[in-house]
Specification:
single chain; alpha/beta; 5-stranded parallel beta sheet; 3-stranded parallel beta sheet; about 15% strand; binds zinc ion
Length: about 300
């Protein structure tokens, strides 16, 4: 069996650990910190493997669903939750395809609306509309027969708009063309809305929020001939007027409104505001360790309810 350990990350951490222990013995905290990181990740990895390989995850995830969120998928290495290297992306897709029941956002909604018990289903989503989603991620998804939902900021499509978060780190934003959006839809993926201009809905007057939401819905309808059913809140965070925005989204015909703060779909989840889990491969040695952290969310959810 292939172990899928991200040796690059492990090597990097071990190298850092050696450097620190050799050149700066006066900083025992750094030394200890690297050691704790490595030990912690190895333990998580092991626990994730036990969870999957014994099949225990099926029992624990009964009544739960998982929505993962990606942003840009890059040819280079992963960097935080906003840029996942395509090699890491493939490792996670192989893991999803092998061990988890992957479905679309619409299938998740229909499952919940039917009142059926969730069985740990996982839905894959992408935010913003990066060109690399069509160029690098879509071929990997096709290879593993995985469906996904692409939440696009429709004014970014076919534009040279530079996102503030990319400018900050000196990266040029490249967005999909309409043709690429249409091709994803034709390949059975879902296209969701993410406003037109990646509008911060907690900061603008309601009239602007409505125009951004309705406008993106109309754009997508014009491009793919189908009304989008899912809406992802730009920046993925909660804000005081979120319940009002969610109500507007429902009036506009969206079945789901998703955030991106981590957390699972719990039994009581209404098909309105759902949480998603951003994936940062650099924080784990392999998807098993990541899955163990997702598993820990079950307990967090129970505590919250
Ligand atoms: Zn976004």
């Amino acid at each position: 069996m292939k172990f899928m350990i991200n040796y690059n990350i492990l090597n990097k951490k071990v190298k850092l650990f050696m450097e620190r222990s050799g050149s700066r013995p006066s900083r025992p905290y750094d030394y200890l910190n690297s050691l704790v990181w490595i030990a912690g990740r190895l333990i998580k990895d092991l626990l994730g493997r036990i969870l999957i390989l014994t099949g225990a995850h099926r029992r624990y995830f009964r009544g739960r669903g998982i929505i993962v969120a990606f942003h840009s998928v890059t040819a280079g290495p992963s960097n935080g939750a906003l840029r996942c290297g395509v090699r890491d992306f493939e490792t996670y897709c192989r893991f999803f395809a092998r061990y988890l029941p992957v479905c679309t956002m619409t299938e998740l909604v229909e499952h919940v609306q039917r009142g059926a018990v969730l069985m740990g289903q996982l839905a894959i989503t992408f935010d913003d509309g990066y060109a690399d989603n069509a160029e690098l991620a879509a071929p990997v998804l096709a290879r593993y027969h995985l469906p996904a939902t692409f939440f696009v900021a429709t004014a970014f499509i076919d534009s040279e708009t530079q996102a503030a978060w990319d400018i900050k780190v000196g990266i040029r934003s490249r967005w999909m063309s309409r043709q690429q959006v249409k091709a994803l839809h034709a390949a059975q993926h879902e296209i969701g809305s993410h406003t037109q201009n990646h509008c911060n809905l907690g900061m603008v007057p309601e009239s602007v929020a409505v125009a951004e939401m309705a406008g993106s819905k109309a754009d997508i309808l014009a491009w793919i001939g189908q009304v989008p059913r899912h809406f992802a809140i730009p920046y993925g965070r909660d804000f005081p007027t979120l319940p009002r925005i969610a109500a507007i989204a429902r009036e506009l015909g969206f079945d789901t409104v998703t955030l991106c703060r981590g957390g699972l779909l719990a039994p009581a989840s209404q098909a309105v505001v759902w949480e998603r889990i951003p994936v940062s491969p650099n924080d784990y040695l392999s998807p098993y360790g990541w899955y163990y952290d997702v598993f820990k969310e079950i307990n967090l959810n129970l505590r919250g309810s």
